[in-house]
Amino acid sequence: MSLWPQLAASAALVGVNATIHAVGVVIITRTLHLDGDKLRAHRVDHSAVALSVVMALMLFALHIIEIMIFAGFYLAVGAIDALEPALFYSASAYTTLGTPGPNFPHDWRLVGAIEGLVGFLLIGWSTGVFISDMNKLLRE
């Protein structure tokens, strides 16, 4: 596979995942009523712990969706032929390795490497949102 189809696919996947992440963060923030004034007025008790857990789980689910989008791409282009290995390679690239592993098809390895960058940035984005909101809840 030449460079250009990999770059085009990567750009599309970056755009889709960044959009999904932005929309997801807005939905999570609005669903949980995480605006600054309400968080600052919130008491630190068991409901604050529950709010933290629910927010973390919702952000986790958002990342699972993004991993599944990359896995679906790998399945659609025939890079991987079954769901479990596609999810494994996608999760590996998205979370830690930066590459989808040594057995990943050479034709799509650049997409796998870019998935590592996407995961790094989107996990950082979630971390920033989570810390910002929890700081308002717990410190102010």
Structural shape: elongated
User: Helix amount, in percent?
Assistant: over 70%
Q: SSE string, helix = H, strand = E?
A: HHHHH
Radius of gyration: 18 Å
Q: Tell how many strands the DSSP assignment holds.
A: 0
Q: How much β-strand is present in the residues?
A: under 5%
Largest sheet geometry: none
From the N-terminal CA to the C-terminal CA, the straight-line distance is 54 Å
Spans of at least 5 consecutive residues whose pLDDT stays below 50 are: none
Structural class designation = mainly alpha
- Tell me the number of helical segments per DSSP (H or I, 4 or more residues long): 5
Mean pLDDT: 88
Could you characterize the architecture of this molecule?
The protein has 140 residues and is mainly alpha-helical. The protein has helices at residues 3-31, 36-41, 46-76, 83-97, 109-139.
Layout of helices and strands:
Layout: H1 3-31, H2 36-41, H3 46-76, H4 83-97, H5 109-139
Give the structure's gist in a few sentences.
This protein has helices at 3-31, 36-41, 46-76, 83-97, 109-139. With 140 residues, it is mainly α. α3 packs antiparallel against α5 (109-139) and α4 packs across α5.
Short key terms for the protein model shown above:
140 residues, mainly alpha, 5 helices
